[in-house]
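Section 5: illustrative case.
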């Protein structure tokens, strides 16, 4: 069986494992990416660990990976993503035989995660994310005409954040409370904001200053 024999190989193996496993969750690769990803991460952990530690570390790694995906596609507040990233770093770091190989493996994670989103430009996005995401567009054909119209009338209006926006939260506009998101920027509570776009029931706001 193939095994890692040089420290720098940890970067390549962990990088490809992360790339393909997240890619499998993002796009419809018919299981090919999953097989490749599991193959790479199995090579990494089996190169350094006995059977009991192998299963423990691979579970921690995969758990962290799932937290990143859930945060990015459902919650979108960054908390679970940070926890997931830490889990992945801990698993590959502790599995390494020395700090150099561990550092290479951690760098592999930071390379593989963002690179995996490149698959979205080539392959078809998985439909399950369309079904579960909180910010799906609600069409007029689905019976949301009146809701959409009332939300569209909010464009251009100003209001105030009732919670911290990270980047999602609650705002008050015309004495009514709405769930809203920013353009990726975190805002503190009681910040004056303006509605710049409405997509279905998704309200996009930005700081007025």
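Designed sequence:
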């Amino acid at each position: 069986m193939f095994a890692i024999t040089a420290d720098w190989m940890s970067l390549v193996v962990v990088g490809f494992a992360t790339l393909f496993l997240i890619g499998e969750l993002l796009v419809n690769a018919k299981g090919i990416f999953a097989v490749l990803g599991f193959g790479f991460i199995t090579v990494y952990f089996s190169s350094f660990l006995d059977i009991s530690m192998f299963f423990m570390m691979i579970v921690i790694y995969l758990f962290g990976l799932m937290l990143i995906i859930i945060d990015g596609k459902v919650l979108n507040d960054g908390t679970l993503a940070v926890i997931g990233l830490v889990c992945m770093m801990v698993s590959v770091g502790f599995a390494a035989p020395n700090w150099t190989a561990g550092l290479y493996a951690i760098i592999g994670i930071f390379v593989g995660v963002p690179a995996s989103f490149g698959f979205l430009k080539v392959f078809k996005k998985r439909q399950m994310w369309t079904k579960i995401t909180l910010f799906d567009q609600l069409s007029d054909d689905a019976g949301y005409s009146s809701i959409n119209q009332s939300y569209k009338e909010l464009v251009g209006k100003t209001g105030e954040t009732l919670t911290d926006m990270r980047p999602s939260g609650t705002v008050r506009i015309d004495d009514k409370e709405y769930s809203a998101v920013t353009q990726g920027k975190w805002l503190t509570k009681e910040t004056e904001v303006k509605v710049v776009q409405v997509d279905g029931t998704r309200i996009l706001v930005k700081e007025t200053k």
